[in-house]
Amino acid sequence: TTYLSDWWTLGIILYEMLLGKLPFEESGLSQVLKSVTEEDIKIPEDSCTMEAKDLIQSLLKRDPHERLGQDDSGDIMTHPFFGKTNWSNVIKRKTKVEELEILDEQSELYK
After folding, report:
1. Residue-wise pLDDT tens for the chain (111 aa)?
2. Residue 20 CA: distances (Å) to CA of 14, 30, 62, 66, 86
3. Which string of b and e fits 74-96 if b means at least 16 CB within 10 Å?
4. For 4-84, which CATH superfamily applies?
5. How far is CA 73 from its chain centroid?
6. Distance (Å, rounded) from C-alpha 73 to C-alpha 87?
7. Helix, strand, coil percentages for the chain (3-state, nearest 5)
């Protein structure tokens, strides 16, 4: 069993969470598939931290054997993006989560 496609999916989710849009915004399925298989994913220069950018790019490597996580999840857990993460607390569900502001569709931050 391989989790390499799961790590790729995690990269897509992180991209959308941090940039507010999908990396592939083509209108048709065939265009999306072409982009997935042939085009490099572009991350705007000032859209996120260097650690976040590196994590996303490492998870979205087209070749699964070059993708972060190819050995095991430890590769991802030790990435600098997660540098301050206490994984023991995460596993035990003891991590405190900040309360987030709920945005409505009119908010400038939503766009």
Report:
1. 578 889 999 999 999 998 888 888 777 888 878 877 777 888 888 888 999 999 999 999 988 899 999 988 999 999 999 999 999 999 999 988 888 777 676 666 555
2. 9, 23, 22, 26, 26
3. eebeebebeeeeeeeeeeeeeee
4. Transferase(Phosphotransferase) domain 1 (1.10.510.10)
5. 14
6. 12
7. 50, 0, 50
Report pTM: 0.78
Tokens of 75: 């590769």
Q: Which two tokens stand for residue 43?
A: 């991350």
